[in-house]
Structures are given as C-alpha cells and as structure tokens.
Amino acid sequence: MSDTAVSAAATVIDGKAFAQGLRGRVAAAVETLKRDHGLTPGLAVVLVGEDPASQVYVRSKGKQTVEAGMNSYEHRLPETTSQDALLAKVAELNADPAVHGILVQLPLPAQIDAQTVIAAIDPNKDVDGFHVINAGRLMTGATGAAAPLVPCTPLGCLMLLKHHLGNLSGLDAVVVGRSNIVGKPMGQLLLAESCTVTTAHSRTRDLPAVCRRADILVAAVGRPEMIRGDWVKPGATVIDVGINRIDPAGDASGGGKSRLVGDVAYDEAVAVAGAITPVPGGVGPMTIACLLANTVTAACRAQGLTPPDLGAG
Ligand code: NDP
C-alpha cells in the first residue's frame, strides 16, 4: 500500500487500501491453513432483532468472511429473543469445533444484558476482544498461547500507525475517549508499544492543550469535527475513529444529503498534521478486516498453531 500526499502538510493514510491488503493476507493465510492443515476458519455472527445498521454490518461481515475463503455462519434471532435463549445459542457455538470466532452484534434489545452475553462467549473464540479475559490479557501483556484477542477497531488503528510510523517507542500518544471497545484498548496497545499514553475524556481539563502535546492523536469521541486544527501539534499523526452522519447544514433534521464526518475537523487538521486518516476511508474499513484476521488467529490457536503476523503491511 502507498500513502497518498494530498496537501503540503499531511499524508493521507489510506485505510481502505491497507484493509484491502490485509484481507488479501488473510485470504492467503486461509489458503495455507486449508492446504497444510485441513483447517477452514469459521466465523459465527449472531444478530438479534432488525436494527438496520446492524443488518448492514452483519451482511458485510458475512460477505467478506466468505471472500476470504472462510466459513460464515449467520444466526438471526427475533427482536423478542430472551437472554436465556441467546445464552443457549452462544453455548451451542462455544461447543461447535467448526466455529473459531463468535461475534454477537451490538446493540442488543433491552431485555438482554450485553455484558452477561459477552461473558458467556468462550474467550478463545471472542474475536471482538470484548471479554474481560481478553481485556485482562491485553492489560497484562500476555503473550503466546495466552495472548489476547484484541478489539478490532483499535487493532486496525495500531496497524495503520505502525505501517506509517514504524517504531512508536517513546512517542507521546493522546487517546480522546475511554470506551471499552475503542479508547481503553487503544491506550493499552499504545502503552505496549512504549508510547507515553494520555487518555482524555469528557472531564479532561483544557483538552486542546492536552491534544497539542500528542505525536499520535487518536480521536474516538462520537462528536462531529470536535477536534480542531489548532489542537493538533504540527507534524502529528492523527487517527480519526469517529463516524458521524450529519446533513450539509450540520443539523440532524435530515434535510439535504447527509455525509459522514469524523471527530476531527479534517480540512483544518490536514493542513497541520504530518499524517491523518480520512473519514470515510480511514479507520472504518479496518474494523472488519481485523475481525477476519482475529478469526484466523483464533483458528490457529485452537489447533495449537502459531498465528501468522497479518498486520505488517
Ligand atoms: P462512546 O460513546 O462509547 O465513548 C465516547 C468517549 O468520548 C467517552 O469516553 C466520552 O467521555 C468521550 N467524550 C464524549 N464527549 C467528549 C468531549 N466533549 N470531550 C472529550 N471526550 C468526550 O463511543 P465509542 O468509543 O464507541 O465510539 C467513538 C466514535 O468512534 C464514534 O463516532 C463511533 O461511531 C466511532 N466508532 C467507529 C468504529 C469504526 O469501525 N471505525 C468502531 C467503533 C466506534 P466519558 O467517558 O467521560 O463520557
């Protein structure tokens, strides 16, 4: 993959191209596993209810799983499914040797507690990396057979950073956002790369000044274009995780044609940063590609094989 320079200042980090390359490496690894070990990795995705966005995600996960040569198992359950019925489905998938990865699509209907369901997934099949065992393994730096399955979005961000910057050791990293699915694991991954990590959130004082310290600035907030150009240190690498849909006037009335923006004011930041991910086409495409990579990792570990290093672009 080659990054494309589009302004005097910043290189645009092409996540779409990197994700395509990663999917290619996953497909090649799957081919080898089939040929040399008779192993076809399998990913089961469980969707409860009819949430339109979730349906789109699940469809694209299934399609990309099959395109990578893996087995895709889709389980669609009605909106009224009880927690016990979903736990029974998870138990069935935990016990199925053809299933190496299990993903329960979030959000879940109100009658189901997501944490209870995540806790029921076999940690070695938890390709979303949300189980407390995987969070603990990530935090403690566990390696080898005990290495964590890492949440897909921060894993994708780390791959883009390493591809662009190489060694991250000693760099100042600021992660804005502390959710369990993005902000916290992102901070842990950067710490493991020997960055000096600051995690900022809604109570952080003088957020612009905190952001200006960052050699690596990761925005995972969910607020359109909140991070302005003058919050960015000149030459910094900016990773924008945010996906926000707004209409051209900036209100949510739905009038006009909506567009996607990130958590970073791109037009301002691109003039200051050294490199930046666009929205769309930056972090977004990495998430499913990393899900496929995690499924290969889980399948290899289930067979006692060393997983291939798929992240190096
Ligand atoms: P959450 O809503 O779970 O977390 C948002 C975080 O941002 C919280 O920690 C919150 O702080 C912090 N925050 C909110 N407002 C401010 C503020 N004014 N100043 C500083 N911090 C603030 O979101 P997620 O982590 O799930 O997602 C973040 C963004 O990433 C969203 O836009 C989402 O759509 C996108 N996303 C994209 C993915 C992809 O595939 N590219 C995957 C997952 C998410 P506090 O904890 O104090 O409330």
Distance between the termini: 7 Å
Compressed to H and E, one letter per element, the order equals EEHEHEHEHHHEHEHEEEEHEH
Any low-confidence stretches, pLDDT <50, length ≥5? none
**How are the strands of the largest sheet arranged?**
1-2-12-9-8-6-7
Overall strand count: 12
Q: Write the CATH homologous superfamily of the largest domain.
A: NAD(P)-binding Rossmann-like Domain
**Main β sheet profile:** 7 strands, mixed
Helix content: 25-40%
If you compute it from the alpha carbons, what radius of gyration comes out, rounded to the nearest whole angstrom? 19 Å
CATH topology of the largest domain: Rossmann fold
Proper CATH architecture of the largest domain: 3-Layer(aba) Sandwich
Strand content: 15-25%
Q: Please tell me what the overall shape is.
A: globular
Question: What is the number of independent domains?
Answer: 2
Helix/strand/pairing category: alpha/beta
Mean pLDDT value: 95
For the record, the CATH class of the largest domain is Alpha Beta
User: Which molecules other than protein and nucleic acid are bound?
Assistant: NADPH dihydro-nicotinamide-adenine-dinucleotide phosphate
Number of helices: 10
What is this structure's SSE topology?
Blueprint: E1 4-5, E2 11-12, H1 15-37, E3 42-48, H2 52-67, E4 71-77, H3 83-95, E5 101-104, H4 114-120, H5 132-140, H6 152-165, E6 172-176, H7 183-192, E7 196-200, H8 207-212, E8 216-219, E9 237-240, E10 244-246, E11 259-261, H9 266-269, E12 275-276, H10 284-302
Parallel strand pairs: 2-12, 3-4, 3-5, 6-7, 6-8, 8-9, 9-12
Antiparallel strand pairs: 1-2, 10-11
The structure holds NADPH dihydro-nicotinamide-adenine-dinucleotide phosphate.
NADPH dihydro-nicotinamide-adenine-dinucleotide phosphate binds at residues 153, 176-179, 181-183, 200-204, 207, 220-223, 241-244, 283-284, 287.
